[in-house]
Design a protein that fits this description.
8-stranded mixed β-sheet; 289 residues; 13 helices; 50% helix; alpha/beta; 8 strands; 2 domains; single chain; ProC C-terminal domain-like fold
């Protein structure tokens, strides 16, 4: 894997530990290593089984099946260490006493990526006075193009270096906590909605006779281009859309088809459903499966 030389100005976060080795943890680790911001040897990941840690070991990271060993190793970096809580929200609540025992005396950064778990809930479990950051990233951090919103009780000493580091792989806004669940629905879950749109665009082109590989490449490039145009021109999406819709042309016929199918309402409903699910998780109303 090609990677740039580490940026020494960002390496004050000297050790990073990930409690949980799921898709989000893997996306973060890949992003940090790929962009050269953290050496693989500076990362340790705790997973339930040795086999689930193999993908991290192949990147050059240390792995363990014992959370206590991970915390002990990261503690050696003092306030320059960071532990990422990448477990499922239900697991965190169910094992609250274990997490409190592990982290109540940790003086580094504690970064939660768990949907629906508020700062108050984190402090109730881990204790007050810790350097806790509640965040909601999306998986595009793995390519250095993520959205990773965060909220923090106070900009504690040392928060800036964590912010600088994580903003190298994402748009990293610091927001009021009341907005985190909305951003989770918009971006944390929303990236999956965009993937679905890319798949649908590709399906449409395949139906009309285009090769699947080329169709998907063009669909993805179209979405990237549209997003970049909105961001860089700071123009309302509907204004940009209208510039594509020539009178009697092909695009307005397609827009009419989307309107008839209720496309806008479907997307709004999806963001709303994901946002409300975060609030359900925050209230501890986990569905039994």
């Amino acid at each position: 894997m090609e990677k740039s030389s580490p940026d020494k100005s960002l390496r004050k976060v000297t050790k990073m530990g990930f409690l949980g080795g799921g898709n989000m943890a893997y996306a973060i680790v890949i992003g940090l290593i790929k962009h050269g911001k953290v050496e693989p040897s500076s990362i340790i990941v705790s997973t339930r089984t040795n086999s689930s840690g193999e993908k991290f070991a192949q990147l050059g990271c240390s792995t363990t099946t014992k959370n206590a060993d991970l915390v002990k190793e990261v503690k050696g970096s003092g306030s320059d260490g960071a532990i990422f809580l990448c477990v499922k929200p239900a697991q965190f609540i169910e094992s609250r006493s274990n997490f409190r025992a592990l982290l109540s005396c940790f003086d580094g950064h504690i970064v939660s990526v768990m949907a629906g778990i508020t700062l108050e809930a984190l402090e109730d479990v881990l204790g007050k006075g810790l350097n806790i950051v509640r965040t909601i990233p999306n998986t595009a951090v793995q390519v250095g193009a993520g959205v990773w919103a965060c909220t923090v009780r106070n900009n504690y000493s040392g928060f800036e270096k964590l912010q600088n580091l994580l903003s190298t792989i994402s748009f990293f806004p610091v927001v009021e906590e009341r907005l985190i669940d909305i951003i989770s629905g918009l971006s944390g879950s929303g990236i999956a909605f965009v993937y679905t749109a890319i798949q649908a665009l590709s399906d449409g082109a395949v139906k009309m006779g285009l090769d699947r590989t080329l169709a998907t490449q063009i669909a993805a490039a179209t979405v990237i281009g549209a997003g970049k145009t909105v961001k860089e021109t700071e123009t309302h999406p509907y204004v940009l859309r209208d510039k594509v819709c020539s009178p009697g042309g092909t695009t307005i016929y397609g827009i009419h088809a989307l309107d008839k199918a209720g496309f806008n309402g479907i997307i709004v409903d999806a963001v709303e459903a994901s946002t409300l699910r975060c609030k359900v998780i925050a209230q501890g109303k986990q569905e039994k499966k």
